[in-house]
User: Fold this.
Amino acid sequence: MTKTIYSKEMKDVLASLFSKYGFNEKKAKLLAEVHTENTLHGVNSHGINRVLNFIEQLKLGLVVKDVEPEKVESFGCIERWDGKLGSGVINAIKCTNRVMEIAKENGMGLVALRNTNHWMRAGYYGWMMAKKDCIGILFTNTEPNMPAWGGKEAKLGNNPLVISIPRKKGPIVLDMAMSQFSYGKMSTYKLKKQFLPFDGGWDTNGNLTKNPEEILTTKNGLPIGYWKGSALSMVLDILATLLSAGRSTYKLGLESHEYGVSQIYLCINPNTYDDLALQEKLVEEIITYTRDITPTEPNGKTYYPGEQSLINKIKNQKEGMKVSEEIWTKIIDLINP
Assistant:
């Protein structure tokens, strides 16, 4: 069962919830804004559906609410930060803003963050950069939830990757996990009691399956592109760990819960080049060329990364967001037990 919630109501309710659990007014509103924005974009799995899990991590002490991320080392346009196990969202916003400052000054910047937590929808920070006319490349490691290709046990994280590009007609924002389906997306299918449209991982018998519940149990997702996704996942983990001097997927897997992950924020300032009109022309040329296709379905079309996300937001702002009635009720009950 679903119910319709508008963005203002969701922001107000979530701000009250986060305040109750010890965040100051500014941080509570920021967390509420991010969870609501993610839901507006149609990514309930990393918006409203992730709230209860976040509260549980707070109760377990895995997320520390009253800390601020700290710069620990600086190497010109490269910086290392320590998230001190604070909110992944708040840490990510701080580092996104910081790396944009560096890029505006130097043309390019990199912030490597260690000891942080789940940043919810990775694409949120790509949208932040694109809206500020910056190119962004961001990624995180995770607990083990995919096998290295050729093996059976989960040894790799699905390590979400974001690449964002500013554009006048709407930013281009790629937001993808290294697994065929993100674990948040599989949780959404499970909540709806639906099977995945394609195989998404292995069941308890070691067979590929479309059953999200079995994959969530085994934590053995299918890498995108099989061996290629496996290799890309490993490289992203190595880079995040190496540059931040933080914890790897291996170290994360030694714990019973995922916390203290490592992340990379890379920003390029396109204004460094004196040819913005040409840049816009080249981007439109590529998109136009890609759209000029014979569709596989009647009235079908291709989409650039982030286009459907923007369509979802416009629709949900007007019509309200469809959310799980069960999850919404549990959130309300946490505020008014």
In short: The chain has twelve helices and 13 strands. The first strand starts at residue 2 and ends at 5. The radius of gyration is 20 Å.
